[in-house]
Amino acid sequence: MDAIRKAFAVAGINLRLMMSDRGYMVAMFIVPLIVGFFSSAVSGGGDGGINLPVVLVNQDPGAYGEAISDILGQVEEIDLLELDATSTAEERVKSGEHLAAVIIPLDFSQNIDDHEQTVITVIIDPAQASYANILTSIVDEIAGALAIQGEIRFGIQEVLADMGYDETSSPGFARAAQAQVEGVLFTQMQQMQSDNPIMVTSETLQGERVFVWDNVFSVILPAFTVMFAFFVVPALSTELLKEKEQGSLRRLVAAPLSRGSLIGGKVLASTLLVFIQVSLIFGIGAIILDMPVGNSPLALLLVTISLGLVATTMGLLVAATARSVDQASSIGLLLIFVLGFLSGSLTPTAPLYKGEGFLALLSRLTPQAQAQIAY
């Protein structure tokens, strides 16, 4: 009990010393909030959802081109601008004004009716490829549905032609028969979609509905909080080396204080500082920005304590290996930014750990990536 009491006493002293350093406090508390707010604003804010500025050039006078234009215009996440010239649309994407341009060719509807291959061109901004992929998926879905309609209409025409009722011999009857059959088929398809006998829902293994993170702060704030929590590494390592150079560490070791209490107190102080940092930033995010923080306070507490312990022990490791205060500071900052980039803390909307390959595997091995996944 005496060792624990002394460890808490050392932690209190170290915590007061760290909190008296204004520059360190700004790096731990203010900078993550500013960077997180700025990045979230650039990414589209909180609950505003995804906004995809898209240019549409519809050169097709037929029904299928008009259908694509109508459907894209109805998608809430797409901010659609219709233009007449392909060159103007390309310039807007090139300049970064719009995320992508969808080009529907002149003979699009005619090619579908003639059962011939046709192409919709999607020009994307390579700097925003991760968001542009959302648009290409939407266009693929629309084109697939229209292709099915085209296949059905072509099939009806072929059947009627085999029966002797085509546009050449009996144009009036062929059109009436095709319209009637199409009406029955498409009505039946719509009914099947609305009255689907099979309902698919996503649930966790515990039977709870999957929660959709529609608030961008829930991705960006934890990522930057995790990265800035590791500022404990250079702070703790340089503090220990300063104490060693000044002789105060030797006096502490010579005092009636066990090494466990001494090191435990320093670890406890840095871990508490990380805990305060996460609590403050997440609290502001939850209260002011409506950022969801999950439904398990215990899990949140355990992840935060683990984050603090990992950052603190990394600081002790740097202090044990560095030969000077400057070297410890350089190594600590290098670890922060290299691991921050590798883990996805610096690129929270498209982190490496969500990908595939060697870099993704390496990313998942970093404590920063594991903390982000846990949060």
Could you describe the 3D structure shown?
The protein has 375 residues and is mostly helical. Strands 2-1-3-4 form a four-stranded mixed beta sheet, sandwiched between helices. Helix 3 links the parallel strand 1 and strand 2. Helix 1 crosses helix 11, helix 3 packs antiparallel against helix 6 and helix 8 packs antiparallel against helix 11. About 3% of the residues have low confidence.
Summary of the model, kept short:
Helices cover 66% and strands 6% of the residues.
Quick tags:
375 residues; 6% strand; mainly alpha; 66% helix; four-stranded mixed β-sheet; elongated
Mean pLDDT: 76
**Morphology call:** elongated
Low-confidence segments: 44-48, 209-213
| Amino- and carboxy-terminal Cα gap | 34 Å
Largest sheet: 4 strands, mixed
Helix content: 55-70%
Using DSSP, what is the number of strands?
Answer: 4
Instruction: Report the C-alpha radius of gyration, rounded.
Output: 30 Å
Range of strand content: 5-15%
What letter string, H or E per element, gives the SSE order? HHEHEHEHEHHHHHHHHHH
Backbone structural class: mainly alpha
Q: Which strand order does the major sheet show?
A: 2-1-3-4
Number of helices: 15
